Structure formats: structure tokens, C-alpha cells
């Protein structure tokens, strides 16, 4: 594991931040997870752009410079020697005497952690996984990738206790997204996923799937659908940087479609696998 703290390489054991860091005290920070396939970054540019947008949304000045962050990410991956890795980026508003209002003088704490990625078991992709549904108890700005993930953690823990892979959030009967993934359903050969608004994180993987659909004449729409649409779907799959394209074969104990990964899901999986072999940006 390679760790950079505020632009400096540090030993894992010595990688420590202040007890008054606002990330620690208030969840006042943002993060990204980027995947490295075969030594190549998979859309680092898009992840950094999302980080920048998030910073704007929460009035955080990325005082270390986004270019520096990019350099450190590339350097850290190089030094790690890992071919397949995940890069965890976290940026907080920094350390200051505790008070809610933003400190006048603080500089960002920024961390880059490179870990070798083991990936999910292959059988998950081949046979599909199960999900549960849970009420969405998060705030109304889920488009920002903040480190305030307690509601997501509780949801994931419930899924784990139920022997499921993921918890799917719903709000007033509408299906929103997973605790760490976006949700797609397939109905009559059309992909449907929640619109990219303040209720979901606009996933990089979600975007790649829509591009794949565009390029291969697969119909799709970004619209709100309800829990019954989820249960009645021909196919369901999740998307995410570490989730990739994950077929869902059961939700709340109800079998989806034929109970095996669907036809379109498999096609998207195939195109996605081809895509990760070529992207390097
Ligand atoms: N939605 C949530 C709540 C997430 O935490 C994530 C990823 O961590 C995603 C969606 C998928 O986003 P991406 O495809 O950019 O990894």
C-alpha cells in the first residue's frame, strides 16, 4: 500500500492526520475511488472533474491544486508497481479549532492511497448477486461525493447481515441507487436508470454504460422508476468503480427475470470489459 499525505510519501504506519481535522469531526470532505486496469487509469480525468465540482458545491478551495493531485496519483501508482489497483483520494477542509463555520485559515488535508485490487469473485459476475431494499435516509445532496457515508454504511451492513451484496435505496416508492453503486433495470430491451440529479451520485461507471448504450444502439432512458418496476424488471444490474457491471438476480427475496444474469446485462459486461482494456486517461 502506497500512501501520500499532503503530497508527501509517508509510511502507512506514520500516515496520520490531526484530531481536529474537519473530515474527522464533521465529515467535511470529499473522496474518489479510481480503478487502475493493467497499469492504466480508468478515467482519472472524470473522477478529478467530479471532485472539483463537489468542491465547488461545498465551497471548498482545493488549495493544493488539482494538477498536483493528478501528479501524485500517477506517481503513487507507479511506485506501487501494482497492475490492478484502486486509488483512494480523500480531501478535507483541513484542521482547525472545532467550530461549525468554515475556518478562515486552514489548508486542505489530501490523501492518496493505492491498494492492490483483488476485485469481486468472478462467480458474482457470472451468476449474479442478491440485494435488499432500504429507505433512503441520506441528505438531499447525494450528487456530492462526501465522506459522510454513515447512512450508506448502515445500509451496507443491513445488506451484509441479510446475506446480500448491496442495499438499494428507495425514497417514497422510487428506486434511487445502491449504497455504493447505481442501479439499472432492463424492461423490454430498454435500460432505465435514475436521472442524474441531487438524489444520486452520478457514477462514472453509470456514464460509461450510457455511452456504451449510445454506441451500440441500445435504448435507454434516465427516468424515475418505482420498486414494483424493479421487482418486475426483465434484468437488473448495478454499476460502480469497484462493482463494475454486477448482475442482480434477487431483490428482497424476489427473483428477477429468469433468476440468472440477463442478456443485455451480459452484453454490457462484455463491452465494459473491452472498454477497460483500452481507456488510459
Ligand atoms: N452511488 C454511490 C452512492 C456510490 O458511493 C458510488 C461509488 O462509490 C456510485 C454510485 C458509483 O459511482 P462510480 O461509478 O463513479 O464509482
UniProtKB/TrEMBL annotation:
- Entry's CDD domains? D-AAT_like
Q: Cite the InterPro entries for this sequence.
A: Aminotrans_IV, Aminotrans_IV_CS, Aminotransferase-like, BCAT-like_C, BCAT-like_N, Class-IV_PLP-Dep_Aminotrnsfr, D_amino_transT
Top-level taxon of origin? Bacteria
Cite a single GO MF annotation.
Answer: D-alanine-2-oxoglutarate aminotransferase activity
- Keywords, in A-Z order: Aminotransferase, Pyridoxal phosphate, Transferase
Query: What GO cellular-component annotations does this UniProt entry give?
Result: cytosol
Reactions the enzyme catalyzes: D-alanine + 2-oxoglutarate = D-glutamate + pyruvate
The Enzyme Commission number assigned here is: 2.6.1.21
**Residues in coiled coil:** none
Subunit structure, interactors included: Homodimer.
What's this protein's name? D-alanine aminotransferase
Q: Which organism is it from?
A: Tepidanaerobacter acetatoxydans (strain DSM 21804 / JCM 16047 / Re1)
Q: Which gene encodes it?
A: dat
